[in-house]
Amino acid sequence: MEYEEPKFFEVMGYVGDAEHDVIDMVSGNPDWEPPQALRDGLKEYAEFEPDRFQYPPSDGTPELKAEIAERRGVDPDRIVVTNGTGEANYLGMAAALERDAGDEVLLTDPVYPYYPGKTKILGGDATFVPANRDGSLDVDAYREAIGDETGLVVLNTPNNPTGAVYDHAKVEEIVRLCEDHDAVAVVDEVYDHFDLSGTFESALTIDSEHRVVTSGFSKSLAITGFRVGYAIFPEWLAENAKARHMLVNVATTRPGQYAVLRGLEGADAAYYEAARELVRERVDTFTDALDAAGAEYTRPDGAFYVMARFDGYPGTMANVKRLVDEAGVAGMPGEGFGDAYSDWLRFALVTPRVEEAADRLTEFFA
Ligand SMILES: Cc1ncc(COP(=O)(O)O)c(C=O)c1O
């Protein structure tokens, strides 16, 4: 079997090879500071006795699990601390598919490209359900698509790439459809702290045995390199997920879990609000420039991406490379996210140079 790598790496490699100045709006790496307490935690860790440099409990340190459990209002036994939200999604998807209750996987179009990749390595068959034009969920389309063969539905809110924050009632309807068809909904909430609309509600509040919630600290604590996330399973799926996590990973980073715990304790509401405010300002700056350039775009309610469409300039890999070469701005090709937005380009607003990038785009498309 041939696995498909998401296109992020091809674009990042192209940018890395460029010899001129390129503003990188490709990947979702926050450019702002983590909480100071997280930095302090890392320093403290360096001085610990060697026993703290050895394997932690496989499913997460008890301290971090207890903190997550308290914050999320769940039993710690239902939590697996993972190698980022990426692994949490993998475990959730595997838990759904290994039941032999159907191989079909319902994904949205547009889609975060790692989901189809994971579907393939897990032996699932992806069916894409188009989102509404504004990125919201089309529940009727799910009602039509779901069937006896459906084992898994993957949702992501706030959404990458559309910036949609799903209506909670719609997420609940889809979880209920999963219950009716013996499928499992995996809801990826890695952008839960980047709800710019104030309307986000976690799927955890839906009382269901057919729902897995995943999240992590890559975005909320600005540490994509640490690789700490978690999945919250219903009890009946938790044990197998823990076993899979142990067999694949042994455990995830112990110093990282310690630093995250310290970071969580140190990050007050103002820390998260400051990051959201920064994103809001960048959305305004960038979309003003897109207006000036005559582009169509999505204004995100959450996460930190803007999709833009320039007349006569479809979001192909070739056009992304041309933009790198000729405008000095790197985005992601819309075709990497499925069919619905294949004409579009995605820009990540995680650079202090958003204004400059906007100016470069305006000039290029003038
Ligand atoms: C929707 C979504 N899920 C998961 C991830 C990966 O998160 P993590 O770094 O916690 O593995 C990303 C990263 O961009 C993402 O956009």
From TrEMBL:
GO terms for molecular function: pyridoxal phosphate binding; transaminase activity. It holds the Pfam family Aminotran_1_2. The keyword Transferase applies. GO terms for biological process: amino acid metabolic process. Residues 21-360 form the Aminotransferase class I/classII large domain. Its cofactor is pyridoxal 5'-phosphate. It is an enzyme of class 2 (transferase). Keywords: Aminotransferase, Pyridoxal phosphate, Transferase. Its EC number is 2.6.1.-. Homodimer. Belongs to the class-I pyridoxal-phosphate-dependent aminotransferase family. This is Aminotransferase. It comes from Halolamina pelagica. The lineage of its organism: Archaea, Methanobacteriati, Methanobacteriota, Stenosarchaea group, Halobacteria.
